[in-house]
Amino acid sequence: MNIEVLTPISAMDRGDPEDDYSLGQFADRAEQFLLSKRWCKSIRNGYFGLGNEGILGVFLFEISPGHPDVDDWLWVVTGDLPPAYLVCDLSPDPPSALRSYIREMRRWVEAVHEGRSIDDEIIPVNAPATREYADMLESRLDLLEELVLSQYDEAERPEG
């Protein structure tokens, strides 16, 4: 993980402060989301990884954990979709964090569609576990792959 390529949240372009879907609002929601967890005592540092106004923001946080089993560094994805935190082990950069988010949220969607339990080993989602919400989330995940991740996938492809 190379934080030198990320922008500190305090230095990022926050967009329109009155817009609930600005990157600044997404950053604030990401911080509030982490601080709402009992295992997060405080946030030491926050960085903007990637994002699109009106869609989402991917942020990296260094926290003071309130429990020894909690990582010091976590990604948070928030925006016009359910917020989630992700460990950094398999996500060394913002696009891979977003890929992990999409993969985990798709597991939730699949469990709901199949009528399986969402209690164990499925990422918590702050929405009712109904087909309607699963379908809405699935369509947002499709858009994230198409509109956001495709930019990074194209940039990573070798020319020729």
Describe the structure.
With 160 residues, the protein is of the alpha+beta class. The mean pLDDT is 91. The chain contains three helices and five strands. The longest helix has 26 residues, at 131-156. Helix 2 (94-114) packs antiparallel against helix 3 (131-156). Strands 1-2-3-4-5 form a five-stranded antiparallel beta sheet.
Produce the secondary structure layout.
Elements: E1 7-8, H1 23-35, E2 40-52, E3 56-65, E4 73-79, E5 81-87, H2 94-114, H3 131-156
Antiparallel strand pairs: 1-2, 2-3, 3-4, 4-5
Instruction: Summarize model confidence as the mean pLDDT.
Output: 91
Task: Sketch the major β-sheet.
Answer: 5 strands, antiparallel
What proportion strand?
Answer: 15-25%
Number of helices: 3
Cα(first) to Cα(last) distance is 29 Å
Q: What class do helices, strands and sheet pairing give?
A: alpha+beta
Strand order of the largest sheet: 1-2-3-4-5
Defining key terms:
5 strands, 160 residues, alpha+beta, 3 helices, single chain
The gist of it:
The protein is of the alpha+beta class and 160 residues long. It has helices at residues 23-35, 94-114, 131-156, and strands at 7-8, 40-52, 56-65, 73-79, 81-87.
